[in-house]
Every structure is written in C-alpha cells, then in structure tokens.
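MODEL INPUT / OUTPUT PAIR
PAIR INDEX: 1
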Amino acid sequence: MQARISQKVAVSVVFVAAMFMTIMDATIVNVALPTIGHDFNVSPTSVDSIAIGFLVSLAVFIPASGWLGDRFGGKRVLLAAIVVFTIASALCGLATSLGELVVFRVLQGVGGGMLTPVGMAMLMRVFPPAERVRAAAILTVPTTFAPALGPLLGGLLVTDASWRWVFYVNVPIGIAALIFGAMFLRQEEQDHPGRFDLPGFLLSGLGLGLAMYGVSEGPNKGWHSADVLGSIAIGAVLLVAMVIVELRTAEPMVDLRLLKNRLFGAANGVMVLASIAFLGALYAVSLYFQDGRGMSALAAGLSIFPEAFGVMAGAQLASRVLYPRLGPRKHVIVGLAGTAISIGLLGLLGPGTSLWWARLLLVTLGLSMGNIFVPLQAAAFATITPAATGRASTMFNAVRQLGGAIGVAVLTSAIVAVGPVHLVAGHLTANLTAYRVAFLVAAAFALMSIGFAMLIRDADAAQTIPGRVRRRTDAAGAPDHELEGRPAPLLSD
C-alpha cells in the first residue's frame, strides 16, 4: 500500500498531525491549570510544575532527536515518539495526584522532544528544494494554528466536560497518525549516523533544561529567586561548556558549525526573535482579554482564534504568490514589518476600545506570521546537505522552542514589572498600561529580527524559488535534482 501514496503526502500527514498535537498541548493545558489546581487542592504556584515539567523535558530530549532519527531511521523514531506521546497523554488524563500528572507530563515531553525535529527532517528530505515552499506552507499551519486553537478548545473542554479531556483529546489524533504512518511511511536510514555523543547530549540537555526552567519560572517566583538565578546560571555554564566541547568533537550531537552556514545562521536568528515576539504576544493577549478586560477563558479563546484564519490565508499567499516573486529576504522582512506593526497597534488598545479591533489585529498578525514562517522554513535548509538535515532540524526546533519560552517569560515579566492592577478611586482595577508595554516589547523583538533577515541572500536560496530554479535549469541544461546537495556556503566564504 505504500506505493499508492506519495511519500510527500505520507510524511506531511503524519508530521502535521504529530506537530499539531505537541504544539497545541502546551497552550490547551494552560487554560486548564486553575481547574486542575482546584481539583487536586494545590496552590497556583505548585500547579505551574505541570507546564514547566513538559517544557523542560522537551528541551532535554530535542538535542538527541536528530541523531536518533539518523541512527534508527525517521519512520521508527517518529512512530515511537507518537506512541510515547499518546500513551503519556492518556496517563495524564488518568492521573490521581499532582505528582503523577507531572511525571506523565515529563514523559509527554520525551515524545514531543523527538516528534518535531525528526518529522521536519523527514519533510525536508522528501521535498526537493524547489518544492520546499509547499512543505513550509504545510509546516506553518500547525506551528501557528495550534497555539490559537489551544485556548479555545481548552476552554470548551474545561467548561463543558473535564480538565482530563485536554489530555484525552490527543489520544485519537495520535492513534490515527500512528496507524497511517505504519501503513504508508517508508523506512529510510542515513548511511553514517556517527556515534552517540554522550557529553554533547548531557551538556545540551541539562543546559537547555535548566535554562528553560529558570526562564519559565522567573515571572512566577521572581527573577531574584535563588531557584531561578541558580538554574539560569548553571544552565548558562553548561551551555558554554557544550559550545566548547561540541566545537572540538568530530561528530557532535549539536552541530554548532552549521551556524557558520550564512543562510541557516540568519534563519535561526530570525526564528528565535520572531518566536519571542509571536508566542509572547499570543500569551500576553490572552492575559489582556481575561485579566485586563474581564473575559472568560472560552471568550478569550474565541477572540484569539481569528489569528488562525490569518495564518491560513498568509501561508497560501506566501507559498503561491509572494515567495516566488519576492524571494526569502524581502519576503521575511515584509512579514516581520507586518508583525511588528500588528503587535505594536495592540499596544494602543484602551479600556473602551472595541474588542473587534483587537480581533482584526490578530488576523493581520496571523497573516504576517504566515509570511515569515513559510519563506523562512522554505529557505533555511536550502544549503544544508541531506546528511546534515537531521542535525539542522534539531537546532532549528530547539531555537524555536527556546524562543517561545523566552517570549512568554519576558512579556509576563514586563506585565508584572508595570503592575497588572492599580488603585482607581480606592478600588483595584486592571492596569491596561502593563499589557501595552508588553505588546511594545514584543513588537521591538520583531523589529530586531529584521537585522538577521537582512543577512539572508536570495542567491543562497535560489534553488527553493520555483521560477529561479526553472531559469537556472534552462540556462545550465541540468535537471533540478542535480542542484540538490550543494556544499553549504559559509560566512567566511
């Protein structure tokens, strides 16, 4: 039956389903945290460990995913990760205490940490460079649609069913993806995956995990907390040690040399700053709707959801119209400018501003983000060889994950620093200035990322731009596939 379905279709279906589960899981659970805390009779501070455990586990296991995919084959590792994530989701729904739930969330993170990098590497290998803009449009849907759907679906499930269903909802998706993948995915292995880099795994996993813990807990415990400062400091030391060790290792788990690749390095710079701006703004606007304007979790989710329609429209506009005409450099800059403007205008919202204005800005935000992620993901791997794709995918996703955590932490800290409430006529009232400052901070990150976008050269990504590939093919008389696997140009070139 494998021959009846193209590998492009098979990998796309399984990867989108898997990625959708993991990304949505992070936002859908946040809505349920207060209810879970009440059910288990624990403090709001304690219940945060449910979210933190998942994020830290993701950070620890993402670095190993590229090597595992190369060593055991993408199909085996991707399906194994889906099994782990799905079983862990079911166990989370069955948890009878906070301790059990945190353990099962960590197990979820093990599966989630392997899913996205391995799936992305498979997608980049199955789509030739000239077709990667199509693959990027596919990737953009779960990447930006799931964060908007999570609060809405979470609000519905918590309100009308039980918090346990925010975990159970992953089970049918996981089972369907597993069955489809087992039937139609083709097993492919890399010839020389290399040895397992244990020092690299330990240093990167522990360093990223501690840094993620410190960044995530900073807004809750305070940046002066010994836990937070200690975690960030030790994490930073381990990451510095990781850089030193990995640059001296012949076959590193975290291949930092890939960042010398001009195009890939610039794309990672844009990705981390754009993720800070986008995911931080989505989190801040959720707080704005609920704490600033007094909306319920469900109503806030419904108000955020229009962003998803913007993403879908933006992805189609990007892949079909703008990328072939503008190329990655101008295209990414246009998307970043639109993102900065959309988030910046959210900073002008006042207590009497119509909520429809906020919803419209979320549509334009989604439209703009679609025109960042599509060209970025289409171009980023253009000069990465097939053998290095697994390691490159690992780094790309680790950067995105870290950017999202930093975005939430920085914007939450901005809100706390200004003060989410203030006294008005003797009554505590929501202080909308705090949310305005947070939005302006997010907009500033979007503007800063334009500096990295300026480093992108369209010539490096020419083989991913359909019209230019055809022109080069006509001029050189060589078929498209001969353009693949070029050595990656380095910054020092």
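PAIR INDEX: 2
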Amino acid sequence: MNLHIKKLHQDAKVPTFAHATDAGMDLYSLEAVTILPMVRMQVATGIAVQIPGGYVGLIWDKSGLSHKKGLKVLGGVIDAGYRGEVMIGVVNLGTEPIVFETGDKVAQMLIQKVEHPEIVEVTELSEADRGTGAFGSTGAK
C-alpha cells in the first residue's frame, strides 16, 4: 500500500516510522507551540494525506508524551475522503507546560482497514455473559 503525503508548508515534516515494526507513524509539529496545563488546542502538521478507500487514519498518543507529560490526543479520525490539513487535537493533562518546537513529534497515526457493517435495527439483542454490566462490572477498581 502507498500512502500519499502532500506537504502544505515548506517546514512540514513527512510522517516517519521510527522502527520497521512500529504500528504508528510519527506526526510532527509544523510550528513552535506551548500547551499550558488543562488547555486544549490544535497542533498543525502542515501535511495532507490521501488514505486509500477502505482504510482510516487513527491519530493516537505518543506513549512517552502521554505517560511522562500528560499529553492526550483528542478525536483523531482521518477519513479516506478527507484531503485537508491533518490537525492534532490535544489537551495537556499534566501540571507543567508542554513545549513543542518545529519538527517535534506530537502524535502517531495508524492506518487501519475499515469494516462497514450493515446496520440492522432490532427490538431485542442476544444474551451475553456480561449482560448490561457497565463500568467496573469486570472487577476493575
């Protein structure tokens, strides 16, 4: 599969895989930005992607930024028909500002196959072991 990337700005960095076995490709900040604690914002990448039909781009946290600094990606679904700039919605859940310089890794994108089930409205659902048990019903505290 080929993934076509268009740089929308000369300073944009094309996504890369840090390791051959990585599931996600790194996405980079187009510009310097500071994200204050408990602030939401969009980080520009300066790129557009052409995701093949039948696939989706899913934007996920970088584990180091998430675990060490509290950066959380918001949203993050890039549909195959979208050709605009990839913007990364983030929130700083940490206690210190997070600073990105131009070209810093911000998030990662996975390309995954999409299934389109036929949607069928029913009046009853089949029984299941878990039933209607929700949050904490499996014993997690």
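PAIR 2 NOTE: Residues 4-113 form a domain with the Deoxyuridine 5'-Triphosphate Nucleotidohydrolase; Chain A fold (CATH 2.70.40.10).
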